[in-house]
């Protein structure tokens, strides 16, 4: 044999053997077959206690209880947990469409090892309104997702897509968090998810979280009180975070994004998001007395007698801040540098109190005191300011163009959350959404990999 080809052939054999080891397994509560996961008739009735790296586990509708994911790592080989649907369910053997038209429901996930993909495959078309009935996978309960074991070991390289994650609810006094990680988790993705309804934070992040992506997700409703202080996201340290195209509703506490309790946070890209307080929140409807009303900023990185935090390189572009209540609605970073705040809309919100070391330009304000912005490029609207399609309907797309913003890099800022190219008509609009253009509907991915 040609000695040059031999190593290549052996490598090909090794790769083929590795690929052959991966398998597709099926899980269906109520299955009455052989319980070996080979098809829908013989499906496991619950996820096996030990999962195999490289395998894909399809879930039928049903209740799955709580689950700890602690399978030993094998290099970067992932385990995929995927909701079965009519169009993607693996084998047809034993399949019934009734297995894929509902949700796989868990009460709690604890994830202690690395490289998992959790893929619900679908969600509601009006997800931005907070509707959650069509997410393929749902995790609902007090403190629903924990990403560390309490002893310094946590899950890294995790992907969550099309998952509805609901905490124990507001005003319970439990102080629970939706996503809880104390181990400085890294390479974490939440995309097309709903994360909502906690009694403290939506994200509690301790240690240096690295390479976090939160994109196209609905994030809503927490509680903050003098006794149990909360925010949407509370962190000590973090590096390289992208927060894009999300809808954030009815958050209270220090800020939507808060750096507290000491540490350095750096390299955040925040773009294409909508953050608002609803009419019901503004009226304090249905809440217990004593909670902290509103926020002290969209971003607040504290450096004071109680908090030694530094924030560097926050890029805050093309966001819409609507009807924000509390004391401040802007970007407050008390120590650090390199920040840019451009092309944003503040509409009917409390004073911004924008204060940071960096630059501002091309922001748009209506019925909002724009302190901290003395630039000549800002627009303070006084007439014809009803620029959104439906404020009462929570549709914050533009019905008319704004004054031109400043053009930004095409990647990653060149499209809004609907896939409309910014500036294609000659005007790069301000706010989360670009005016005009055709909405691009992206199909749900059928296979996902961990970054």
TrEMBL record:
SUPFAM superfamilies: Pectin lyase-like
Keyword Signal attributed: yes
Transmembrane region(s): none
InterPro entries per the UniProt record, alphabetical: Pectin_lyas_fold, Pectin_lyase_fold/virulence
Signal peptide feature range: 1-22
Stated name of the protein: Parallel beta helix pectate lyase-like protein
Keyword Glycoprotein part of the UniProt annotation: no
Keywords: Signal
């Amino acid at each position: 044999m040609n000695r040059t080809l031999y190593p290549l052939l052996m490598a090909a054999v090794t790769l083929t053997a590795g690929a052959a080891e991966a398998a597709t397994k099926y899980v269906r509560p109520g299955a009455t077959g052989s319980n070996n996961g080979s098809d829908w008739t013989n499906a496991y009735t619950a996820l096996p206690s030990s999962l195999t790296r490289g395998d894909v586990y399809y879930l039928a509708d049903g209740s799955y209880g709580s689950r700890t994911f602690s399978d030993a790592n094998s290099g970067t080989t992932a385990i995929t947990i995927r909701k079965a649907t009519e169009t993607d369910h693996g084998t047809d053997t034993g399949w019934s469409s009734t297995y894929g038209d509902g949700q796989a429901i868990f009460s709690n996930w604890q994830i202690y090892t690395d490289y998992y993909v959790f893929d619900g495959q679908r969600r509601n078309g009006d997800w931005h309104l907070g509707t959650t009935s069509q997410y393929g996978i749902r995790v609902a309960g007090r403190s629903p997702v924990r990403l560390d074991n309490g002893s310094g070991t946590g899950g890294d390289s995790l992907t969550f897509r099309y998952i509805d994650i609901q905490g124990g609810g507001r005003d319970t006094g439990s102080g629970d968090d939706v996503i809880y990680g104390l181990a400085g988790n890294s390479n974490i993705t939440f995309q097309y998810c709903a994360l909502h309804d906690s009694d403290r934070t939506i994200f509690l992040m301790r240690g240096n979280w690295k390479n976090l992506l939160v994109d196209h997700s609905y994030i809503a409703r927490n509680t903050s009180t003098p006794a149990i202080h909360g925010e949407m996201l509370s962190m000590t340290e973090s590096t390289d975070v992208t927060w894009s195209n999300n809808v954030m509703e009815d958050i209270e506490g220090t800020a939507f994004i808060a750096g507290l309790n000491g540490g350095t946070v750096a390299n955040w890209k925040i773009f294409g998001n909508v953050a608002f307080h609803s009419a019901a929140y503004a009226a304090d409807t249905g809440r217990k007395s004593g909670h902290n009303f509103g926020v002290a900023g969209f971003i607040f990185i504290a450096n004071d007698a109680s908090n030694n935090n530094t924030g560097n390189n926050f890029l805050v572009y093309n966001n819409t801040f609507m009807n924000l209540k509390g004391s401040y609605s802007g970007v407050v970073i008390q120590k650090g540098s390199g920040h840019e705040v451009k092309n944003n809309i503040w509409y009917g919100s409390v004073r911004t109190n924008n204060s940071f070391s960096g630059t501002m330009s091309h922001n748009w304000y209506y019925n909002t005191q724009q302190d901290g912005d003395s630039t000549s490029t800002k627009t303070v609207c006084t007439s014809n300011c009803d620029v959104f399609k439906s404020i009462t309907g929570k549709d914050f797309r533009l019905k008319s163009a704004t004054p031109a913003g400043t053009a930004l890099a095409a990647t990653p800022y060149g499209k809004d959350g609907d896939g409309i190219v910014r500036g294609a008509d000659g005007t790069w609009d301000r706010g989360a959404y670009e005016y005009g253009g055709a909405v691009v509907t992206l199909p749900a991915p059928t296979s996902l990999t961990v970054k």
